[in-house]
Amino acid sequence: MARAVSETHGEILAAAARRFAVTGYRGTSLQDIAREVGCSKATVLYHFANKEALLAELMAPAIAVLRDLDDQLTGLTGAAAQEAAAVGFVDLAVRFRREIALLRGEFPELLCQPAFAHIQQISERLRDALAGHSDRPGARITALVLLAGISEACAEFVDVPDDELRSALLTLVRRALEPVDAPLPQPPTTEDKDS
Amino acid sequence: MARAVSETHGEILAAAARRFAVTGYRGTSLQDIAREVGCSKATVLYHFANKEALLAELMAPAIAVLRDLDDQLTGLTGAAAQEAAAVGFVDLAVRFRREIALLRGEFPELLCQPAFAHIQQISERLRDALAGHSDRPGARITALVLLAGISEACAEFVDVPDDELRSALLTLVRRALEPVDAPLPQPPTTEDKDS
DNA sequence: TCAGGGGCTGACCGATCGGTCAGGCATGCT
DNA sequence: AGCATGCCTGACCGATCGGTCAGCCCCTGA
Known about the structure:
The structure is a homodimer. The first copy, chain A, has helices at about 5-25, 30-35, 40-45, 50-75, 80-95, 95-100, 105-110, 120-130, 135-155, 160-175. By secondary structure, the first copy, chain A, is an all-alpha fold. Chain A folds into two domains: about 5-50, Homeodomain-like (Arc Repressor Mutant, subunit A, Orthogonal Bundle), CATH 1.10.10; about 55-175. The first copy, chain A, is elongated, with a radius of gyration of 19 Å. The model of chain A is unreliable at about 180-195 (pLDDT under 50). The interface between A and B is large, with 36 and 36 residues. Chain A binds a DNA duplex through helix 3. Chains A, B: This is TetR/AcrR family transcriptional regulator. Chains A, B: Keywords: DNA-binding. Chains A, B: Pfam families: TetR_N (PF00440).
């Protein structure tokens, strides 16, 4: 053994991603990951401070993109916010569907961990944007249904090609979102509506 | 102490429902439930054979309704199947949102338990019906997004009145479902293959 | 009065969890 | 040669899990 550190590090990361996607974060033990890599549990903990650090490194790219999306959403209102949130989140969810899959319903508890402190607020802002910043219960419910449904669908349809899944989801979201009556900075230009 | 058995039985059931809804099935220990009731863990296991039996009894009413819905769906095709699935599932999800909440993403592992053997097949049939029994990926993706989203929304909006939540969800589903081209109002026992 | 039984409990069990630690084993630098 | 460093490991730790068991308490009915 005694391979380059980066090599084993990456192998552990990949194995963890695979196991987490199948049995979830809590449902996967460090022993499981070590077995999949072919090393000891102590080796896993040599490369990563603890189990949470392993998850954090695994989620880092997705979180970075989520932060970018959050920045892009600031200032947008009404239909513009809805469209930006829809396109941005669908793209994010499709690209990082493996990362989303491994959170499968463990969001609430995982969010309590310091590494994911801001995600809850970001996801709430995202939901708010998708609702066109409307206070109507119908709009807020629709936004949550779509966000949760998209996440679940991306985790489920792992074998569907990226672009096919993305276009299907975007079509669905645009159809499901009721237009919000908000003052747009610019009037709704003739968007490409696929009949 | 030494109350009537049915009394303690019900208290444990109620406490378990409360704890499961907050921390999930796996995230709640028998000790937690016992602490909430104010009895010992052994008492919980005196009234219920094991943790799984506790969950099974908690879910029994919801599962019974789900089975009824499954029966009502058999034979329906196209838009009729979509409408029946939508109305039936929205109503079920709203009525049993506490039961749905406590499954939060633990569906996959929980379904492996014998008490929930048939639920997976039922939910697949439900998804199929909501897709109008279409094979198109777009229709199947839409159906899954809606089913998962509705479940999550019901688990989240616990404070919204039943009828308000139900009507909002139904409006959303009807808007989100693209009409399927199946003009048969009643099934003439032919295979329902579109195009 | 007293035996019997239902409700309930503390103590305990084996398994598994995340995490620690001293040390083995190469390899490379001096 | 001798030492240091980095990668890795088995053994072990305390905590917690679901579950078992002998036995206590109290009510009931003969």
